[in-house]
Amino acid sequence: MKKLYILITSVILTSCSNNLEDLNKNIKDPSTVSGESLFTGAQKALVDQMVDLSVNNNNTKLWAQYLQETTYTDESNYDQVTRGIPSTHFAFLYRDIIKDLEEAKTIIEATEYSLPDDIDAKVNKLQIIELLEVYTYANLVETFGDVPYSEAINDDIFLPVYDDAETIYKDLIDRLTVAIDLFDTSSESFGVADNIYGGDAELWKKFGASLKLRMGVLLSDVDPAFAQSTVEEAYISGVFTSNSDNANFTYFSGSPNFNPIYDNVVLSGRDDFVAGETIVNLMNAFKDPRLPLFFTEVDGGGYLGGTIGANSSYSSFSHLSAVFESPTLPGNIFDYAEVQFLLAESAARGFNVGGSAKDYYEAGIEASILDWGGTFEDYTNYITQSNVDYDSALALSSAATPWKEVIGNQKWIALFNRGFEAWTSIRLLDYPIMAEPVDAVSGYPARYTYPVTEQTLNGTNYNAASSAIGGDAAETKLFWDLN
Questions:
Q1: What 3-state DSSP class applies to 275?
Q2: Which string of b and e fits 325-363 if b means at least 16 CB within 10 Å?
Q3: Which is nearest to 122 in space by CA: 102, 105, 98, 103?
Q4: pLDDT in tens, 81-101
Q5: Domains in the chain with CATH codes
């Protein structure tokens, strides 16, 4: 028996010895990943990060004072250190989004398609990747200021330099212009691999023009002439024209493909958030029909928000409505209502965008109310109030620039649940006025501070960037935030 065992073992070893390289092959997983798959993953990662409510990933809905924490109030008090949110956001956008988009671009560029439709679709795929990469870099600039760009995502450069934020931003706008012009709206693109527009090139082209509009508006104070030409070009290119153009990511009911907010407010089993007093007080003053769509009523009726920065009992204040308890709540990263408010701002600044500030302001309010499930009657009742009607509200305003207050307040309400863009709008327009948290560790955050890892591992370039922007502090205003 022993001899037989040895003989069998010898045969097995001998038969394998000539194919040792096969031992390390994983026969269950594919050896390569398609560019389309990388795109799908990067798209989801981007939307997840933008909509997430977890204080470990995204503080902006607290900084926009839409919500208030019930127990752990560090983030509501502008603490950027306790959980290292800046480090998380910085790493996530570069590693999980831009890196994968770049790899998807490389693979798709190198792929030789045989069918004519696939060849035509290739061009559109590359432009869609470009739009999402520009969107991501724009967020980094709007969040941090100077960031790695020219040397970013380079495997041969471990310590990238930080580029000038304004230079990056204008280059991103140039990239958008090229991408918009290259779209072939008669051809396909990603199809089902695209969970926002299902591969519809015409909608992606509108997205690109709308993004260019947003970025142009952001430069209005720092470079008015450049901002005006950018905005007017975007308008001519064709921005969103209805709620059906909204950039809504499709989530599913099963893990891990549900909306992160479902995990935050349902699966976590925690009651961590209530409505913030800033938004509830303003919406109460406006008799806003979206209140029951955003929040629950307190016992006895009405809506009450928690004091900003203070422990706020879940049972004592309004909290997120049942709308946010659905795992399939779409993840919105851009919508028609925002575009209308951006056009209102543009018109108020004297840019030629085909309509008046009042018309676009009213269209933005209507779009928001209808998109959240309100009715046209809700809109007409709302818009006729003296503190909401555009002309009357301008007359009531005591602001140095009344339109900034009037448009800023309504735009902020319409941006509810979109923390990053709401925070950006607050910094640009300085409205609405944010409450001072009860235990604030800084003034109102004008930016995320740089990641601690950059200070320790990329110190020379970090120090140069910090000096260039005026200091790595939460209150350091970015180049576009002049007021």
A1: strand
A2: eebebbbbbbbbbbbbbbbbbbbbbebebebebbebbbb
A3: 105
A4: 988 899 999 999 999 999 999
A5: 35-258+328-469 (1.25.40.390), 263-325 (no CATH)
